[in-house]
Write a structure and sequence with these properties.
190 residues; alpha+beta; three-stranded antiparallel β-sheet; 5 strands
Length: 190
């Protein structure tokens, strides 16, 4: 389909010619250099996922002015990034350590952990709309699929976002024969 073709084209364009390796930069600087290379690799991918929310004029290590919702699970990043690297694979532990450096280095990305344990990389200034605003346009309740469609997320990320909102007391669930739907939490005390 079109999404697969777009991703394949982007991977070909962003193929990493000189992948960072421990042998080249040394063990002491490896994660720092890997974080910089990941940043350069991720920005076009996240920009595509958020529909142009990040400014195209954004410098590789500058600040993002857009308020996009582009995000990618660490698992997806591991697969896509290693595919672009070719034979110089990065371990899951090294990838995570490099992503954990984004905020410390002032890069415009961050690693976020959902309560379920799912890790995602997203723009540091990502301004997720509140679910209460979305819920107003879904009088019969918001399903995970509705949220995924509205925000351009995968179904798994939408489920995690709803679970996090439920844990925070922002929404209540209705698990009925029609499926699992979420509504504004009117029982919460203020």
């Amino acid at each position: 389909d079109d999404d697969d073709d777009d991703l394949s084209a982007m991977l070909l364009q962003t193929g990493i010619v000189n992948p960072v390796s421990k042998a080249v930069v040394g063990v002491d600087h490896y994660h720092s250099e890997l974080a910089a290379q990941l940043l350069d690799f991720l920005q076009p991918l996240l920009r595509q996922r958020e529909g142009g929310g990040m400014d195209d004029g954004m410098s590789a290590r500058g600040s993002a002015r857009g308020q996009g919702r582009g995000m990618m699970t660490l698992t997806d990043l591991f697969c896509v990034y290693n595919r672009a690297r070719g034979i110089e694979m990065v371990s899951p532990a090294d990838l995570r350590k490099a992503c954990e450096l984004f905020e410390k280095k002032g890069y415009p990305l961050r690693l976020v952990s959902f309560p379920s344990g799912v890790l995602v990389v997203q723009p540091a200034d990502s301004d997720e709309p509140s679910l209460s605003a979305l819920l107003a346009s879904y009088p019969s309740g918001l399903a995970a699929q509705d949220l995924a469609n509205a925000l351009g997320l995968s179904l798994a990320l939408a489920r995690n976002r709803l679970k996090a909102a439920e844990d925070a007391g922002e929404v209540c669930r209705d698990d009925s024969i029609e499926g699992l739907r979420f509504f504004p939490n009117r029982f919460a005390t203020t």
